[in-house]
Design a protein that fits this description.
Elements lengths: L2 H24 L17 E2 L5 H5 L28 E17 L2 E20 L2 E22 L6 E24 L2 E21 L8 E24 L2 E10 L2 E13 L2 E15 L2 E10 L3 E10 L11 E3 L2 E10 L14 E15 L2 E15 L6 E12 L7 E16 L8
Antiparallel strand pairs: 1-4, 2-3, 2-18, 3-4, 4-5, 5-6, 6-7, 7-8, 7-9, 8-11, 9-10, 11-12, 12-14, 13-15, 14-15, 15-16, 16-17, 17-18
Length: 421
C-alpha cells in the first residue's frame, strides 16, 4: 500500500471509529443544559477544547497538541509526536442554581462531552478528528394567563431540548520551522425543539400541544495558524483562528395536537441560518517545560445574523480567557505528585443575547489536574468550573453553577521513531 493509500485509509478509519464511539457514548446520556437563555438563536454555544483546556479557562489558541489534543486551533495538530497516537474522551456533570425575583430552582445534569483522536502522517503533517456538541438547548418555563372576557385562567408550559453536534477532521501542516497552519472540515447536524403544552386547570381538558422542531445541517470549515520562538529556557507562542461566515440549512416541522385530533402538521418548511464570522487570537509563554501561561481573545459578529425575535436582540459576542499550567517535574520517578499537571484559569463572555436591554454575560473561575497513569504518557484529567451567567435585574434569571469535566487521555507510542526520506 503506497503512502497516499495509507493516508486515505487512515482518515476513513478515523471517521468510522469516532462515529461508533460517539453513538455508544451518547446512549442514555442526559442533556446537562438547563437555561432559559438557550431558547434563543442556536442555544448555548459550547467552547471548543477538552478537559485540559477547561481547567485553564478554556484558553489555548496558541497551545500545540503535544501531550494531548488541543481542539481549539486546528494548527495545533502539527505538534503531535511523530510516534504517538492520542485518544481523548470526556464527560460533563453540572449542578445549577437558578434565581429570579425571589424564586429559585436547582438542577443537575450530565452528558458525554467530546471524543477525539489524532496522530502524525509525516514529520510535517498531523491529523485529528472528533465529535463534540456545537450548541445545546434545555429549559422549562411555566406561565399563567387570564382568558380575555372570562374569569378563568390557563397554563402554558414551554420546554426546550436538543443539541447541534459537530463532527470534524482537521489537518495541520508546517511549511517551515516553528510555524504551522491547519484547517478543519466539519459537519454540523442536530435538532433544537420547543414543546408548548396549554392546559385549563379549572376544566377537564387534556390540553393542546404545540411542537416546533428545527433540524440543522451543513458542512463548514475553520482555519488557524500557530508560531513559536524559543530563547533558551523561554518560549513565546502565538496563534490565530478564523471561521468565515457560513450557512446552516434548517428544516422546520410544526405539530399542533388538540387531543385526540392533529390540527396542523407542517413537514417541509425550509430556511437558512447564517453562522456569523468569528476570529480569535492567543498568546502563550513557556518557562522550561514546567510553567505555561495562555491568554485568548475571541470575537463573533452575531449582529450580522438573520435571526430575529420580538423580545430579544442578537449582538456581537466577545470572550476573554486566561490560563496557567504548572508541572513540578513531569517525571513520575521523582514522585507521583511531581508528575501531576496543575491548572487554573478564568474566562468571561459577553454573549450574543440581549434581553430587555441587558446583554447576558458569563464569568467563571476554573481549576484542573492531569494525573498520569502507569505508562506516564496516558492521563486522567479532572477540571472544575465555578461560574455565573445572567442577572436578576430587569426580571431576568441568574444561574450559579459548578461544572465538572472528567477526561481520559490515552497516548501511546505505536511505532519506533521513523526515518523520513
Amino acid at each position: 500500500m503506497n503512502r497516499l493509500s495509507k493516508i486515505i485509509y487512515s482518515q476513513l478509519w478515523i471517521g468510522l471509529a469516532l462515529s461508533l464511539l460517539f453513538i455508544a457514548g451518547n446512549a442514555g446520556a442526559q442533556n446537562y443544559t438547563f437555561s432559559a437563555y438557550s431558547a434563543y438563536g442556536l442555544g448555548l454555544l459550547e467552547n471548543n477544547g477538552i478537559s485540559e483546556n477547561f481547567g485553564m479557562g478554556s484558553a489555548g489558541i496558541a497551545l500545540p497538541s503535544e501531550r494531548y489534543l488541543n481542539t481549539i486551533n486546528p494548527a495545533s495538530f502539527y505538534g503531535i509526536d511523530s510516534t504517538s497516537f492520542i485518544f481523548e474522551v470526556g464527560a460533563f456533570g453540572k449542578y445549577s442554581s437558578l434565581q429570579s425575583q425571589g424564586t429559585s430552582l436547582d438542577k443537575l445534569g450530565a452528558s458525554v462531552r467530546y471524543i477525539a483522536m489524532g496522530f502524525k502522517i509525516t514529520k510535517w503533517w498531523g491529523i485529528a478528528g472528533g465529535l463534540a456538541p456545537f450548541s445545546t438547548r434545555g429549559y422549562s418555563i411555566v406561565n399563567t394567563y387570564t382568558t380575555n372576557g372570562y374569569n378563568d385562567t390557563y397554563q402554558s408550559n414551554i420546554s426546550g431540548s436538543g443539541s447541534i453536534n459537530r463532527a470534524y477532521i482537521g489537518n495541520a501542516f508546517s511549511p517551515f520551522k516553528n510555524f504551522s497552519i491547519g484547517i478543519n472540515a466539519s459537519y454540523l447536524f442536530g435538532s433544537l425543539k420547543q414543546n408548548e403544552q396549554i392546559t385549563y386547570p379549572s376544566i377537564r381538558y387534556n390540553g393542546m400541544n404545540i411542537v416546533n422542531s428545527n433540524y440543522f445541517s451543513n458542512f463548514t470549515y475553520d482555519a488557524g495558524m500557530q508560531y513559536k520562538a524559543t530563547f533558551g529556557r523561554h518560549t513565546i507562542l502565538a496563534g490565530i483562528t478564523y471561521n468565515p461566515s457560513q450557512t446552516l440549512s434548517v428544516r422546520t416541522n410544526k405539530l399542533v395536537v388538540d387531543s385526540p385530533d392533529t390540527l396542523q402538521n407542517d413537514r417541509s418548511v425550509y430556511a437558512n441560518f447564517t453562522l456569523p464570522a468569528a476570529a480569535g487570537i492567543g498568546l502563550g509563554y513557556y518557562w522550561k517545560d514546567q510553567l505555561k501561561v495562555f491568554v485568548d481573545y475571541k470575537f463573533q459578529q452575531w449582529s450580522k445574523t438573520n435571526y430575529h425575535y420580538e423580545e430579544a436582540q442578537l449582538t456581537d459576542s466577545r470572550q476573554y480567557n486566561i490560563g496557567i499550567e504548572f508541572a513540578p517535574e513531569r517525571r513520575i520517578n521523582t514522585g507521583y505528585w511531581n508528575a501531576v499537571e496543575y491548572r487554573a484559569g478564568f474566562r468571561h463572555e459577553d454573549s450574543y443575547l440581549v434581553l430587555r436591554g441587558t446583554q447576558i454575560k458569563e464569568s467563571a473561575v476554573t481549576i484542573g489536574l492531569s494525573m498520569p497513569l502507569r505508562n506516564q504518557f496516558s492521563k486522567i484529567n479532572v477540571s472544575a468550573e465555578f461560574g455565573q451567567q445572567g442577572t436578576i435585574a430587569n426580571q431576568l434569571i441568574k444561574e450559579n453553577y459548578i461544572r465538572f469535566t472528567l477526561g481520559l487521555t490515552l497516548r501511546d507510542r505505536w511505532a519506533p521513531r521513523p526515518r523520513y526520506d
